[in-house]
UniProtKB/TrEMBL annotation:
Pfam families: Acetyltransf_2. Signal peptide: none annotated. The lineage of its organism: Bacteria, Bacillati, Actinomycetota, Actinomycetes, Streptosporangiales. Belongs to the arylamine N-acetyltransferase family. It comes from Actinomadura barringtoniae. It comes from the Bacteria. This is Arylamine N-acetyltransferase. GO terms for molecular function: acetyltransferase activity. InterPro entries: Arylamine_N-AcTrfase, Papain-like_cys_pep_sf.
Amino acid sequence: MDVDAYLRRLGITDPGRPSVSALRTLHKAHVERIPYEALDIQLGRITSIDPHDSAARITELGRGGYCYHLNGALSLLLQELGYEVVWHRAGVQTPGEETPGSQRANHLGLTVRNLPSPESPSGDWLVDAGLGDGIHGPLPLRNGEYREGPFRFRLRPSETDPGGWRFDHDPGGSFAGIDFAPEPATLADFTDRHVYLSTSPESGFVRTCVVQRRDADGVDTMRGCTLLRTGDSTPRTINDQAEWFAALADIFDLAPTDLTQPDRDALWQRVRATHEAWQATRSA
């Protein structure tokens, strides 16, 4: 992996030796500069989630990804920089859904170990750059409530995964929470679910194009043709293809250089058609 190219994408010259402060800087830069996106799924493509390929997406193509890409690539970068990183099977719970537990494996969870501090005497930290509107910086892996910008989070022992952890999102977030299994996971734990999320008509990634970027004060979200900022009660609708791609570049730092003009045309046509179908259901 090209560590220097990755750090340039994050805007970091020298990350320093492993420390809580350095981890926090790396994490915040990652969620601020590498967007949460699944454009390839909208184009009917199944991408690689090998962490080396995911890192290359970020450094060579100006892309982001969803949890398997983002957390996979981040874990590789952190390991290269000397951090002890562990993968975990995790299950995301959507609002109103029964708690699924980690067996669903629709999320790749990460922890970093052996970084003790007053905040985390055990040295364990929850790290996650693949949640879209999730955490801005790493959280100490201990029972407690945490506030970041407009969001309040809670970490507690999981009720579905003994020995694991539960992350409760803010009520205003895009999902209810996540349960993490305690044991280490491997790439094989996520490959089947990645195919499902990339192809099934039931997958939210197939149904709707969503792009997000987190910062200290909130989240920018493009859902279909609707652009919204955390706390803004007036969403903006984008009806022009050039304006839509300009918003991806300007607001989300997403310039997908690997997409040809026919790719861009096909993507916009799908996004626009889905948006119009959604509008029709609201006015029916």
